[in-house]
Amino acid sequence: MSDPRELVDDLTEDLKRWLPEQRWFAGKDRPVTGVRPLGVTELVSGDPQLLHVVVEVAQDDRREPYQLLVGRRTHPPEIASTSWIGAVGDLNAYEASGDLDVTGVLLDLMAREETVGSLVFEHEPGVELETGLRARPITSEQSNTSLVYGGQYILKLFRKLTPGKNKDLLLHRALQGVGSKHIAVPLGSITGDLDGEPTTVGMLQQFVSDAVDGWAMATTSVRDLMAAPELHAGEVGGDFAGEAERLGRAVAEVHADLAEALGTEPVDAEELERSAKAMLDRLDTIAARVPELAEHAPKLRAAFEKLRALPLDAVTMQYIHGDLHLGQVLRTVGGWLLIDFEGEPAAPVEERHALRSPLRDVAGMLRSFDYAAQQMLVGQPDEPALAERAHEWSERNRAAFCEGYAAVAADPREQGELLRAFELDKAVYEVGYEHANRPDWLGVPLASIARITNGGTTP
Ligand SMILES: Nc1ncnc2c1ncn2[C@@H]1O[C@H](COP(=O)(O)OP(=O)(O)O)[C@@H](O)[C@H]1O
Ligand SMILES: O=P(O)(O)O[C@H]1O[C@H](CO)[C@@H](O[C@H]2O[C@H](CO)[C@@H](O)[C@H](O)[C@H]2O)[C@H](O)[C@H]1O
């Protein structure tokens, strides 16, 4: 076999074509102009061969590091066609996260706490990991790639890397340290090297096999309501309000746990000014790309500018989830769990690590209840009765969530202006997200912005 680094050099042209086709590739807005290997580590030698690869992807003047698992063998394994990268000589090179024959090694290395090249494999203190398990990738992968080992463990391989300790791992460890009931237990990690800085490239957690995600549950409940036109939201068998209330409690408990583990800070006038400016800047950037947002800009600006005049004791800053929505919560037999503490995928690393008001997470969940209800109307002819029922579901569950939160912490509804500004800021972000990813859904956040800025109710 040739030098692994040369192999990646030989694949450069194939990778330029292949990377933008991947779901997790974050730079689909412009062509890839160059790919350069930063680190190549052989984890399995022979045929098949498994390489851990970090490449720097150039897109004009933007340079970003990505993590890949590259497999190489003479006889191709049965994996998705999108995994094929190219051929080098008479060997096939492919993205190997779907290759059951080779990915077991990642767990085994963590169990034995080995170091291979610049990769450090560790388990959490006191944890004993089973070895020899085969891994299957989960199909609902999003910004990253997750492998499930024997229905017991889930390993998330971070795709776009940011130097240093990953926020997802940092917060899971902190929450585990204070005994939080609402996370999947962190069990291990893989650390690489990026520009000389130890950098988290993987996180192993307990896999919760009985989990259903909140989005699936909530949208089922909305469908039940739509199918029973003679009943109100509270009378339908699939009513979600009890779950929404429990979820509100769980989120408040996680906030309290994060505050206990990592502390809080009072807000100062400069911070309020920075927040208002960030919201106004985000609005300007997205309105320049999405003309439909521009008509709402004056009212949005007025809502964001009100932040500057808030009393300082109204806000406390702490670590928060940062991108909380119904797809980031799992219902298990034991209660609700929160997952994926990385923050908004598009936000720069320093912003994700900044202390924030926990009301931002509350606003994220409130937006998500609205989404669950409104997405049922996407592509349907205008029908006021259906729209009314969607609104009824949303209001009922938003209120129930706030009730649950208020049973553990201060009632978020007492901070109406702040909550409104956070909801609107999230909706502006969503306009940008939908415009880039799901243009059919653009009307969902736009309708909410119109409703909220026209004095529509918040719970
Ligand atoms: N501990 C877990 N147990 C069971 N399923 C999980 C667990 N963690 C994540 N998942 C599933 O994997 C999916 C992706 O996880 P997530 O952390 O959101 O990854 P990404 O960063 O790629 O968005 C989730 O939507 C959920 O369905
Ligand atoms: O889960 P990610 O961290 O990748 O978050 C991104 O994608 C989400 C969609 O998958 C997006 O969430 C928006 O759509 C959800 C329904 O699909 C809805 O529940 C959320 O409220 C809404 O924000 C999220 O904004 C984006 O960062």
Automatic annotation (TrEMBL):
Record keyword Oxidoreductase present: no
SUPFAM superfamilies on file: Protein kinase-like (PK-like) (SSF56112)
InterPro entries reported in the protein's UniProt record: Aminoglycoside_PTrfase (IPR002575), Kinase-like_dom_sf (IPR011009), Mak_N_cap (IPR040999)
Enzyme class: transferase
Keywords: ATP-binding, Carbohydrate metabolism, Glycogen biosynthesis, Glycogen metabolism, Kinase, Nucleotide-binding, Transferase
Any Pfam family hit: Mak_N_cap
Aminoglycoside phosphotransferase domain: residues covered: 234-351
Pathway assigned in UniProt: Glycan biosynthesis; glycogen biosynthesis
Sequence ranges assigned to domain Maltokinase N-terminal cap in this UniProt record: 18-99
Catalysed conversion reaction: D-maltose + ATP = alpha-maltose 1-phosphate + ADP + H(+)
EC number: 2.7.1.175
Sequence similarity: Belongs to the aminoglycoside phosphotransferase family.
Record's subunit section: Monomer.
Protein name stated in the entry: Maltokinase
UniProt organism field: Amycolatopsis plumensis
